[in-house]
Amino acid sequence: MAPEPLMTTDLSCQHNEADAIMLLEESLPLDPLDQPYYDAVANACGSDASPVFCMRLARAYRSEKKAARMGKTVAEAKKVMEWRLEHSADTILGVELDKTHLFRQSWPTVLCGEDYYGHVVSVERAVDIDLATFQSKFTVNEVLVHRLQHLERIQAHLAAASQRTGRRIYKHICVFDLGGVGLKHLTPTVIGYIQPLFALGQQYYPESLFRMYLVNAPFVFWGAWKVLSALIDPDTRDKIQIFTSPAKFCTAAQAQGIPLTSIPTSLGGLHAAPT
C-alpha cells in the first residue's frame, strides 16, 4: 500500500550545522568502524534484512563497550527480525486490523509533513487519547500491533522521501502535545499500561527517531517524567526536548528545520490537522 502524499520539504526554513551532520550520517556510507557490525547483522538475518535495517542496527549500539557491542548488535538484530516476522511487519500496511476504526478514534495520529531534511513529522495529542476505551476494549498486545502498523506507515513515508530526494532518510520526528494531561493520566496503572509502548520504538525500531518534542508540558508532568525517563535509554532521552508552550516549541522547531507548514495549527503552525 503506497503512503498518501505528505507536505514535502520546505527548503526555506532555518536549520543548523549540527542537524546537517546528523542528516549526513543517514545518507552517507557507513563509517569503516561500523562496517563489521553491518556485515554481522546481514549475515545473521540473511535476505530478510534490508540494507537500511542493517545500517540502523550497525549504528544503534555505539554506546556499548567495544567488547560487548558485537554480541549486543547481533542479538538485538535477531530479536527484531524474529519479532517482525512474527507480526508480519513487512505486509502489515495492507492488513485491516481488528478494531481499526475504534483504535484510530481512540488514538488519532497525524503525519503533518516533513522537516528540512525529509524526516516525517508525526503529531499526537494527549487530549485525543481515550484511555478508558483502551483499557476496556484493547489488550496491550492489540495496542502494540496497531502501533506497529503506525510505525510501518512512517517507514513507508521515509522510504518514499528517500526515493524522491535521492538520499537515504530513515529517521522521523515525533511531536506529542501534552496539553490536558492530568493526574488521571499519570497513575501507576496507566504508566504500567503504556510502558510497553515506550519499549516498542526503542527495542524494535532502534536508530529511527530523529527527535521528539513534548509540548505544553503541565506542572504535574514533571514528577511523572522522572519515572518515565528512567524507562527510556539514554541515547533516546537525549533526543527529547520538552516545552511548556507552543510558542517556545515553534521557535525551536523552526530553528531546527521544521517549517510551520509541518506543525499543526493547534501548536501554532499552519498545518490544518484534524481536531
Automatic annotation (TrEMBL):
Annotated CRAL-TRIO domain residues: 99-275
Native source organism of the sequence: Aphanomyces astaci (Crayfish plague agent)
PROSITE patterns named among the record's database cross-references: CRAL_TRIO (PS50191)
Protein name (Swiss-Prot/TrEMBL): CRAL-TRIO domain-containing protein
Superkingdom assignment: Eukaryota
InterPro entries given in the database record: CRAL-TRIO_dom, CRAL-TRIO_dom_sf, PI/PC_transfer
